Amino acid sequence: MKQRRIKWIFILTTFFLVTVVWSLSYAHLSKATIEEKNEDLSIVQKEAPMHMITELFLSKNIQIGSHEEELYQELGEPLETGMYNGGYYFAYDILTYFVNPDSEKVNAMAFPGEALDLAEWQQVEAEIQHDLKYTGLNEMDGLWNEIYDWEEYDLMIERDTKEEGPMYLWLMEDSLFYDETY
Question: How far is residue 79's CA from residue 71's CA, in Å, rounded to a whole number?
């Protein structure tokens, strides 16, 4: 019986010592790892809103500056074509591409606001506020416009009124609709 008790004391003591040694040796590493993961997560969360713009407009092979022929090669026949503000438009499933008739290159893309995840979009709007170039009523269309500087492009949000959600998001050549020199 005494041997059994000694055996249990030995097992419990060993277990206790192993636990203490592990705690002292590796617990700080776990905390550091958790802090690293949290830092990585915060970086990803900061990039996530901007990633949404890239995903909406730049995930296909057609970009601002792509030639009109590339639209047909990459995306096939458009659902609708026509003229808008002196240029051609080519409407596909969700994106509409606008082409400068002189250069025959894409100079703008429009994405319908009703297709947005509004909760995610609100994060994007919060992130881009510091890049606002212009805000005001477009009297010709009767729409509220906000134009932001985004990378080498302009991002325009068209709304029915200042308080409403986006009707359309536009990714455009820099200063296509708004030139700061005026």
Answer: 12
